[in-house]
Design goal:
Elements lengths: L21 H75 L47
Length: 143
């Protein structure tokens, strides 16, 4: 038997070594940070290309508007020239034809009012306050 004062050594058990997660977390952090940097760079290039495209479309739009304006002016000038030519032709035919009979009264499209009557204007409504104006794009629907 062993004496009570003797130190008893427990049986030898293999010690488990603690592995630290710090290296794995560091690698994951570096990888995720590099992916985020790549994303920011790609977004920057996308924004730059979209900005360039918008500027080009604006230039094209102004050129198209100018062309349409010139076409409308040309069309209006042609219509005005035609109307002037037709009125001149009508004036020439009127001078050649006989004058209208004085026995037939002239027809006025506007009805004449008696001298004592004055036309009343419709009452004006006061303007709506800006706070009452509702934006149609943001219509509020409640249940």
């Amino acid at each position: 038997m062993l004496s009570e004062n003797a130190v008893v050594n427990p049986p030898a058990t293999p010690r488990k070594t603690k592995r630290s997660l710090l290296p794995i977390l560091t690698v994951l952090f570096v990888v995720s940070y590099s992916l985020m940097v790549m994303l920011v760079v790609e977004q920057g290039s996308t924004i730059t290309s979209q900005s360039w495209l918008i500027k080009q479309l604006f230039v094209d739009s102004t050129e198209l508007t100018a062309l349409k304006g010139k076409a409308v002016q040309k069309h209006n000038a042609e219509l005005q020239a035609k109307s002037q030519a037709s009125t001149q032709a009508q004036d020439q035919t009127k001078t050649k034809s006989q004058a209208p009979s004085p026995q037939v009264p002239a027809q006025n499209s506007v009805k004449e009012r008696p001298a004592g009557q004055v036309r009343r204007t419709a009452p004006q409504h006061p303007p709506k306050p800006a706070s009452d104006a509702m934006d149609a794009r943001r219509a509020l629907y409640s249940i």
